[in-house]
Design brief:
The complex is a heterodimer of chains A (188) and B (398).
Chain A lengths: L1 H14 L5 H19 L1 H9 L4 H33 L1 H9 L4 H37 L8 H32 L2 H6 L3
Helix pairs in contact in A: 1-6, 2-4, 2-6, 2-7, 3-4, 4-6, 4-7, 6-7
Chain B lengths: L19 H11 L1 H15 L1 H40 L4 E4 L4 E4 L4 E4 L13 E12 L2 E8 L6 E4 L1 H7 L6 E4 L2 E7 L5 E5 H8 L3 E6 L10 H9 L3 E2 L13 E4 L9 H14 L2 H27 L1 H9 L5 H32 L6 H31 L3 H6 L2
Parallel strand pairs in B: 5-9, 6-8, 11-12
Antiparallel strand pairs in B: 1-10, 1-12, 2-3, 4-5, 4-10, 6-9, 7-8
Helix pairs in contact in B: 2-10, 3-7, 3-8, 3-10, 3-11, 8-11, 10-11
The chains are: A mainly alpha (188), B alpha+beta (398).
């Protein structure tokens, strides 16, 4: 049943790809910054060393990029609330036909996960390209660390998916738990 | 709020007695804002998750900016303190050709070369201070030499005394010589007698110059003194001395513009942070947060089309702006509070060495300054979207 829910969610996510542009872009921005900051951590350390407190500034920087990534991912959740509002009647039909809550939630969560993954991957790819191009052109005297880029990419993708699911689950849970008669009559 | 009287509450017919109606009218107009707030709260309650999400997004963004601004204000405070500590009320500051720099470990300004040589003109008073770095129990310390310090004594600023964990009467060893500690003033420097200082730091140092009595406030002290001793002068701390020259005089009184020399000096420090990667990233975060606010307001408009159609069809067109202003105001104020408190907790945990409560308060005030603009633009965009459409389209939609 769960797989059917996922397949249903996948089909509707493909239909609504246009709606995902904004969340994908915001997530990509956050992921891009995370990867770039991790990849160029040496250069940034050198820059903050001139200010003093290099370690603390480095920690603050990681805190800030992860926060920016989270800001980007919140847009995914906002888009999910929009989707849920659009599809209230559809959810009512599903509920009235006796589809249990879990597959419905799984179907609704496909879209935020797809948006988060797409966004994170787009950001990561862009950051990798930027990093290597900057490195090749010699703009980064301290070099771009491949291990840093990989660590940044893992963090970006992981945090995006976890945060997208965590913030999207409440609106989808509420929508799927509503009595079908209310979803059907509220229009939309 | 001149259209305020048109809100729904006031549609209630006043009581027929002429005596009572003015009382009701004032009561109603006084309540307009309360009505708007209640209306906004009702809307927020209807879609709590969207409110939480937009608050979360903006709060995270505001948190980012507050963290960066806290760091930069903390640097600005450090910069202002360090230069005030050096100047000690002098009007001019003659620095060596190699310049002075802020040493992050010693937390004080340190000269990089020998002080310029000159003969002090009549009437002026110049104090030569040796300045360099030394090591006390493994801690890097800024060492200054002054003629007024008695031999066998080391005068420590209270900041440095706290850092080294010494107090009045303790002994410290500088340049192989045991000295008695005296704590005086604030600051992060240790002052010892000139002879001892010159054995440790050599001839490195600077002059602080006091103008003749009565001339302290003149705007041309720098050029006057510079012409007398043959040194260039500047009122801008971002100007560095010519390495091939013989030095530079910073004029702390003259110059145009509202900023004091200390202000400009500390702006150099905070500018380093805000123009670094940190500042750039936090600004991107703020833009993202604003986009989230806008997109969630626009989503609310799309959902409530019919409601706004009804309002527009009974003549409430401009008033819709007030609904949105109050709603976006509530969102931004809550997000601001959450963001500022969250950032305070974050800086206290992650960067306790940099963040001070004062810097955090300054940063919060700074961020509060551009919050109204964001809230107003955030309300205007959805209203603009609504006013583009005719009421009948709004009513017929969906």
């Amino acid at each position: 049943m769960l797989t059917k829910g996922l397949a249903y969610g996948w089909l509707s996510a493909r239909r609504r790809i246009g709606e995902m542009v904004l969340p994908v872009v915001t997530t990509a921005t956050g992921a891009f910054l995370v990867v770039i900051v991790f990849g160029m951590s040496e250069g940034i350390r050198a820059q903050s060393a001139s200010l003093g407190h290099a370690d603390e500034i480095g920690r603050a920087l990681v805190l800030i990029v992860i926060t920016v990534l989270l800001v980007g991912v919140v847009e995914v959740a906002v888009a999910t609330t929009r989707t849920v509002a659009h599809r209230t009647r559809e959810l009512g039909v599903l509920g009235a036909n006796g589809v249990p809550r879990k597959p419905v939630i799984a179907a609704l969560l496909v879209e935020p996960v797809v948006a988060a993954v797409l966004g994170a991957l787009a950001g990561v790819v862009l950051a990798l390209v930027t990093g290597f191009v900057l490195d090749a052109m010699g703009f980064v005297p301290t070099g771009v660390a491949v291990s840093g880029l990989l660590l940044g990419s893992t963090i970006a993708v992981g945090v995006s998916i976890v945060a997208a699911v965590a913030t999207s689950i409440v609106p989808t849970w509420n929508a799927a738990s509503r009595p079908p008669i209310r979803s059907l009559s509220s229009g939309g | 709020m001149k259209h305020g009287d048109l809100t729904i509450l006031c549609v209630e017919t006043p009581a027929p007695t002429t005596v009572r109606s003015p009382a009701i009218a004032t009561a109603a107009s006084g309540n307009t804002f309360a009505c708007l707030v209640r209306f906004a709260l009702a809307n927020i309650r209807r879609r709590p998750e969207r409110f939480v999400l937009s608050v979360l997004g903006i709060a995270l963004a505001i948190g980012c900016v507050v963290i960066v601004r806290t760091i930069s204000s903390s640097f600005a405070i450090t910069g202002a303190d360090s230069v005030t500590d050096v100047l000690g009320g002098a009007q001019l500051w003659a620095v060596p050709a190699a310049g002075v720099h802020y040493d992050a470990d010693a937390q004080a300004l340190v000269a990089a070369g020998p002080a310029p040589e000159f003969v002090v003109p009549d009437g002026w008073r110049a104090v030569r201070t040796l300045s360099g770095l030394t090591d006390v129990n493994g801690t890097k310390v800024s060492l200054r030499g002054g003629d007024e310090i008695p031999a066998g004594e080391a005068v420590l600023g209270s900041g440095l005394a706290a850092r080294l964990g010494v107090s009045d009467g303790d002994r410290v060893v500088v340049g192989g010589q045991g000295l008695t500690v005296a704590v005086a003033g604030s600051g992060q420097s240790m002052s010892v007698a000139t002879g001892l200082a010159s054995t440790v730091v050599g001839e490195r140092g600077w002059w602080t110059i006091f103008a003749p009595a009565g001339d302290e406030k003149r705007r041309d002290l720098g050029p006057t003194f510079g012409a007398a001793v043959g040194l260039p002068s500047s009122t801008d701390p971002s100007v560095v001395p010519d390495p091939a020259g013989s030095g530079l005089i910073y004029d702390t009184v003259g110059g145009t513009g509202p900023l004091t020399f200390e202000g400009k000096f500390s702006a150099l420090f905070s500018g380093q942070v805000t123009s670094s990667t940190l500042g750039l990233i936090s600004m991107i975060g703020l833009v993202l947060g604003f986009i989230i606010a806008l997109s969630s307001f626009l989503a609310a408009v799309a959902e409530r089309k019919r409601e706004f159609g009804i309002m527009a069809s009974i003549g409430l067109a401009d008033e819709v702006l007030y609904f949105f202003l109050v709603e976006s105001g509530i969102v931004f104020v809550v997000a601001y509070l959450v963001g500022v408190l969250g950032a305070g907790a974050a800086v206290a945990l992650v960067i306790p060495g940099i963040a001070t409560p004062m810097a955090w308060l300054q940063a919060s005030a700074m961020v509060a300054a551009f919050l109204p603009a964001m809230a107003i633009v955030g309300a205007l965009v959805p209203v603009h979207r609504l006013l583009q459409q005719r009421p009948v389209d709004l009513l017929g939609g969906r």
